[in-house]
Specification:
Blueprint: E1 4-5, E2 13-17, H1 20-24, H2 30-37, E3 43-51, E4 61-68, E5 87-89, E6 105-106, E7 115-117, E8 123-129, E9 135-136, E10 142-143, H3 145-166, E11 173-176, E12 179-182
Antiparallel strand pairs: 1-9, 2-3, 3-4, 4-8, 5-7, 6-10, 11-12
Length: 183
């Protein structure tokens, strides 16, 4: 018997696609509705991080914070303190610059080249349309409990490194061997 849910559950992976026409159909602007028809919707792999609502039956939408998945290492961004190792491979991908253990899913992730980036820029809020047939959780690819903890740890380590790289010492201070010292 499948596990049917009113909304998708967090710690699951999903494919999202924007519905440009449906997004603007309620607005009385023919030029916007016409422009929306010309937008080519793309599919994106995401990780459902947080559900912003309780999964209550009858809601037309369910709001989530999602993280986009990447098929490459993050680009270096010196201003933001981002290095290419600030990510976590999703097994069967095992490639990482410093050898971080990959995250495991159940079942095994269907793609062999995906990463979770630690950068907040890949996170966004989305709304998922409710479905009368509900969401079959048995069909979902889930991040294992152990890997959820691993992802939180990796992200916390990377964010701390980003923050440390972006903090400039106050005037009159310098950074000597990693410690701020008075000049």
């Amino acid at each position: 018997m499948p596990i049917l849910c009113f909304s998708p559950l967090t710690t699951r992976y999903a494919v999202i696609r924007m519905d440009p026409v449906g997004t603007v159909e309620r607005y009385d602007y023919s030029d916007i509705r016409e422009a929306a028809k010309g937008i080519q919707a793309k599919a994106y792999l995401v990780y459902l991080r947080n559900n912003h609502n309780l999964p209550i039956p009858g809601r037309p939408w369910h709001a989530f914070e999602v993280a986009l998945l990447a098929t490459s290492l993050p680009p270096i961004d010196e201003e933001e303190g981002i290095t290419q190792d600030m990510c976590a491979p999703i097994f069967p991908n095992t490639t990482h610059p410093t050898g971080r253990e990959p995250l495991n899913t159940d079942p095994v992730f269907p793609y062999d080249n995906c990463y979770h980036w630690s950068d907040d820029a890949v996170r966004m809020d989305v709304r998922v349309r409710a479905r009368p047939e509900k969401f079959d959780d048995d069909m979902a690819t889930k991040l294992t409990s152990e890997s959820q903890s691993k992802l939180r740890r990796y992200t916390a380590q990377d964010v701390a490194r980003m923050n440390a790289a972006c903090v400039e010492p106050p005037e009159g201070m310098s950074d000597i061997d990693g410690f701020a010292a008075w000049l």
